[in-house]
Amino acid sequence: MVSFSQPNGLRTLPSLARLQDLQAEIFRQLQLLIPDDIAYHDQLQSRVAGSPLLHLLVLERHQYTSFFRLTYEFAGGDDISFAPDAHVRFYHDARMAEVTSFNCRQACRRDQHPAYPTRQLLQRTWRLNRVLDRWLEHLLCQGHSAGTLRPARQPVSTAVPAKSPVTVG
């Protein structure tokens, strides 16, 4: 939930131009990560040494945008959990990408409304996208790439995880 009363903890206020630069960097990182096979497969996974199994699930495809879920799978005995659970909107024409949520229940929440203060919404969007930027950088440093993402043999669970989702902001 968006909080309008708590200070944001940011040293400098994000600007729309800086947010767009960040979203362009996220797009660039995703291009290094996502293979061309994404056009033919809805579910891909990547396994590299020292890293949990990475899943990419295409949720929607449109002419100018794609919407997908990017998450790690943690398996411990009978329990399987997914974290972080990033939902990403990929704008092919604008060459930008943004995280819409780090929560599998994201479709049930309203994070924007004309009555919400724009400054706080910009700060929240900045934080979420900054987290995605850092995670993508981490994935690429671990060795995940377009060459390691392969079509998944088993479908990724779309069930809501038992543990509370990671929230940022």
Q: What is the total tally of β strands?
A: 6
End-to-end distance: 8 Å
Percent strand: 25-35%
Order of helices and strands: HEEEEEHE
Largest sheet: 6 strands, antiparallel
Give the overall silhouette: globular
Q: How many individual helices?
A: 2
Structural class: alpha+beta
C-alpha Rg, in Å?
16 Å
Question: Can you walk through the features of this model?
Answer:
The protein starts with 15 loop residues before the first helix and ends in an 18-residue tail after the last strand. Helix 1 (16-33) packs parallel to helix 2. It has helices at residues 16-33, 118-142, and strands at 43-46, 53-61, 65-76, 79-91, 96-101, 150-151. It is an alpha+beta fold and 169 residues long. Mean pLDDT is 82; it is low at 159-166.
Notable features of this structure?
alpha+beta, globular
Give the helix/strand layout:
Layout: H1 16-33, E1 43-46, E2 53-61, E3 65-76, E4 79-91, E5 96-101, H2 118-142, E6 150-151
